[in-house]
Amino acid sequence: MEARDQGTTLMTAICSFIVILLIIQIWLVSAALEALLSGDRGVLVPAAIASAIMFAINGGLLWHALRFDRRMRRTAE
Predict the structure, then answer these.
(1) Which of 11, 25, 36, 55 is the most buried (most CB within 10 A)?
(2) Domain around 36
(3) Cα gap 1→55, rounded to integer Å
């Protein structure tokens, strides 16, 4: 039962981190769009790079969460 409690804590932390990164990405897209509409194109490349990095981190976290869930299900059987 202890592993299940640790798994719940881990999944909650991963989901919380994913949500925080998604909120930051949405803010980044809105800031980049505002900069584009105001004619400031110097912000677009750094915003795209930061967004791509956050996308990769979110993908890695999702992959880890799914792998952990698969391992926990196999252990429970």
Answers:
(1) 25
(2) 2-76
(3) 33
Distance CA 33, CA 29 (A): 6
Q: Which residues, at least 6 apart from 75, have a Cβ–Cβ distance to it below 8 Å?
A: 3
Exposure letters 6-27 (e unless 16+ CB within 10 A, then b): ebeeeeeebeeebeebeeebee
- Prediction pTM value: 0.77
Q: What are phi and psi of 47, to 5 degrees?
A: -65, -40
User: In terms of residues, how long is the chain?
Assistant: 77
User: In total, how many domains does the chain have?
Assistant: 1
